[in-house]
């Protein structure tokens, strides 16, 4: 039995004993909370990068190389107006296009990449001409754009060919990076290997019944 010292109340040692006993439990709760919180944060950061790979068309984030961007701009040389990058990643193509005078827009599923792109555009001083939207490319109409850029994957190009063929105006030009469209005939191509880009005029993508 513990001795009660002068100046201590009988309940004090009970309180101290309880408190000491619960300390490890508090640390355990704190550690569990921290671990759980970290996992939630990690998941919310990683999930937008992983989920594109689990969709019907696996289209992961692979940024365009500087050479690829040069090639896109060279295929679009002499053109102006609106431009869209379908699946805009970290915004590098949209920002490069805005720098040479296009009114450029990017549609991207991953919100982190969209926020990063907006920040990057603001830092580059082109945020008035470089806009980014968190959207699924299959749910957006690209009919208003006269310059269309896609760095996709082979599995999606057939479906995208149909979609763009239905939506785009006769004055539009399409640029495919790294993977060409399966049926359209390119008017020209620039670069080689993984940096190759193909340019398509409306004669190749307009539907015969238009
Ligand atoms: C190959 S990367 C190209 C990135 C950028 N265009 C570039 O050239 O640097 C394809 C991008 O499309 C995005 N993406 C995948 N599925 C998408 C979808 N359904 N709608 C919009 N963006 C999508 C990915 O998150 C990824 O950032």
UniProtKB/TrEMBL annotation:
The chain crosses the membrane at residues 29-50. SUPFAM superfamilies: S-adenosyl-L-methionine-dependent methyltransferases (SSF53335). The keyword S-adenosyl-L-methionine applies. The keyword Membrane applies. Keywords: Membrane, Methyltransferase, S-adenosyl-L-methionine, Transferase, Transmembrane, Transmembrane helix. It comes from the Eukaryota. InterPro entries: FAM173A/B, SAM-dependent_MTases_sf. Belongs to the ANT/ATPSC lysine N-methyltransferase family. This is Protein FAM173B isoform X1.
